[in-house]
Predict the structure.
Amino acid sequence: MKPDQRFVKQPKHFWANVRSLSQKLGYTAKGGAGQIKIFSIPDIVGGLRALSLSPAHVVDAKGQPTAFGTTLHDYFVYRAAVLNDYVRPRLMDKKRAAKEFQALYKKLKPRCPIPMNKQKGEKHGEAYLTGIINMLVEQGIGELACDYDPRVLTTITRDGVPVRTLSRRVDGAFPRIINPVAIWEVKEYYNTKTFGSRVADGVYETLLDGMELEELLEHEKIEVKHYLMVDDEFTWWDCGRSYLCRIIDMLHMGYVDEVLFGYEVIERLPVIAKQWAEIERNRPKG
């Protein structure tokens, strides 16, 4: 999923409002289907006042929404709609992910590595989402190389000299972990029963990567594309809807180029991988 361009160029203080209001007013409706909340202008004003903050940037002296207030409300409408209506149906459970994995494996006959999950006993098996990602990347890039499981830090060089090394190891890099066209993170949790700190940390780790890549682009004029791919309906929807909201926020803050949710990997990644291959074939060598 790409960001909605209406919200990509918003200033940092816009996101300060989004975060503060989301925390105060709550991300999800209580009971029922647990839909993502939409905050009305009165909700926003009430939330700011409850935080002992001024609503003057949201409504004017007559109580009419300002341009900023209207955009803020529009974002909350968008975030709720995209999560409730687009993301939720694409999140897969383990059974559906296994079915999609097996169908692709039979069709593509991959040569790329298919990793196993890190669980034990009856839960041990293929890491379905990562396997799907690897197969679709291999299909999209053709004969080009790929680091499907880099176990070192991402390094960006100029004239053979490192200019930046990222803080964290990522789950995949194309075509290699040194000077990649793209890097990606995978967060699949098909066998979990709760939304633990490890899952939450994964969101913030991706945010850190994005902030470092933003600094790289700003100061060195070097772009590395950055992707997040997540799945498991129970983990992300039943337990972690507030973190889905944070992911949508992060996408629009510019810290990740695209987020692919569950089945969206199958819908979107073949196109993305072909775009990576085109960039790699056309960029200067050496």
Summary: The CA atoms of residues 153 and 167 lie 7 Å apart.
